[in-house]
Write a structure and sequence with these properties.
By secondary structure, the protein is an alpha/beta fold. It contains 6 helices and 4 strands; from the N terminus they run βαβαβαβααα.
């Protein structure tokens, strides 16, 4: 059984990079991945490019228009909208290194039900409420298990 993953892509005026980012996510061999793009008010051609990929994607693909937010607040919107069990934040300029990246990152969760991320490790006492729930649901109480893949 595989874990459902949400790849949350943060954008704002990302037309130069977004094609490469989305294409590399779509090429991932992990079968159960949704793509959720949070756009923080792009005024360039980012949205039309994303709409093109959304119309052709075989993976669940949503675009959330969030013009009244900052790119720093966009992850909170992503957390509220995702449908996956595990999430990966990917900035629009990031190039995933290979087609197995998502599967490799999720392997510890699928094999042992545990894993670690810097997001969950850093802000233990100041997390927004949803991060506390995510940490608790995966057994993150006092210890974080970091996995080097």
């Amino acid at each position: 059984m595989t874990t459902k993953n949400s790849a949350i892509v943060l954008t704002k005026n990302s037309r130069k990079y977004i094609r490469t980012c989305i294409e590399l996510i779509l090429k991932q061999d992990y079968p159960d991945t949704e793509i959720l793009v949070i756009d923080a008010g792009s005024t360039d051609k980012t949205i039309p490019i994303l709409s093109e990929y959304k119309s052709k994607s075989s993976k669940p693909f949503r675009i959330i228009d969030a013009p009244n937010t900052t790119i720093g607040k966009a992850p909170r919107i992503g957390l509220e909208k995702l449908s996956g069990d595990i999430l990966a934040y990917i900035d629009s300029y990031v190039k995933l290194p290979h087609e197995n990246w998502i599967g490799n990152m999720l392997k510890p969760f699928n094999d042992k039900g545990v894993g670690g991320t810097q997001t969950l490790a850093k802000n233990k006492d100041s997390d927004i409420e949803i991060l506390k729930k995510i940490r608790f649901s995966f057994g993150y109480k006092n210890n974080v298990i970091d996995v080097d893949l």
